[in-house]
Specification:
Elements lengths: L2 E5 L20 E2 L2 E2 H11 L4 E6 L6 H5 L8 E6 L5 H8 L11 E6 L2 E3 L3 H11 L3 E7 L7 E2 L12 E2 L11 E10 H4 L10 H11 L4 E5 L4 E3 L3 H13 L14 E3 L4 E2 L4 E3 L2 E3 L4 E2 L4 E3 L2 E2 L4 E2 L4 E3 L2 E2 L4 E2 L4 E3 L2 E2 L4 E2 L4 E3 L3 E2 L4 E2 L11
Parallel strand pairs: 1-4, 1-6, 4-5, 8-12, 14-17, 15-18, 16-19, 17-20, 18-21, 19-22, 20-23, 21-24, 22-25, 23-26, 24-27, 25-28, 26-29, 27-30
Antiparallel strand pairs: 2-3, 6-11, 7-13, 8-11, 9-10
Length: 360
Amino acid sequence: MTEAILLVGGKGTRLRPMTVNTPKPMVPAAGVPFLTHQLARARAAGVEHIVLATSYLAEVFEPYFGDGSSLGLHIEYVTEREPLGTGGAIRNVASRLRSGPDEPVLIFNGDILTGLDIRALVDTHETSGADVSLHLTRVEDPRAFGLVPTDATGRVTAFLEKPQTPEEIVTDQINAGAYVFRRSVIDTIPTGRPVSVERETFPDLLATGAHLQGMVDSTYWLDLGTPQAFVRGSADLVMGRAPSPAVPGRRGDRLVLDGATVAPDAKLTGGTVIGAGATVGEGARVDGSTVLAGAVVEAGAVVTDSLIGEGARVGARSVLHGAVVGDGAHVGADNELRDGVRVWCGARLPDGAVRFSSDQ
């Protein structure tokens, strides 16, 4: 089976404050760093050698995963001194690859949760004789994505960035962030400067007559770039809607990690995760949310579709819906936080400081 590159250098700006202290691929989803799920799925597909292309908070990865042997992998790490974009990051790790010029190399974006049949993508690449093969998925509203139309044989005909008018939306197929490159194609990417594989590499290859093949796989797919998407992805992993061999426990409505304390009358639903050493108090209700290690949800609090950072505290009777509470932050009692409110790491919100009237 082929080797792989995982692009994990992004700053995770849309996911802040959860990425202030932790790179996005290392934020826990379903009880383990999200990257663990990607590595485990790659290993299950037969991948044995993976190069992590790191940049932001690069020092966090190797102490956790080491040489990869605990996952049955050999992992190497390459750090960008300056951000190089997706194409530049791929080119930057090329010296660590072992594949011959015509052999396939898998490439994954580090923020996509997917049920992609990895083996089928490699098979498509090899049987079609493509220079690059792309995983494509279909979405109802493609305006936020790059469109990738294909012909009847699956060959890519164009790359259309984020169309806005109905006339521009010629397909519902989008670039889903997983690729197979012929090894020699990686060496054609320019060095020493930022390169976008989506905006530069792929269009340039198409313009020069290269064979780019698309494989539509419309199984589970989610971009975990926002807090709302990240919490949903974690819950879907816990409930078994998204596949991963790395979830530490049985699939179901809840995942309570070792050392956590949950009051007998507290209610955990919707794929909620309670991290190691966290506490959920009497009468609290937590639905579809992630409560990270050492955090506290006090008695009577209601937490829905929210992300609670490490060591954070949600006060008694507070109501959170679609909120993010950063590491070490303290939301006092009797607060109400809704619709994307974010509390920064270490911040303190006094008791009753934020309330919504009943007619809002």
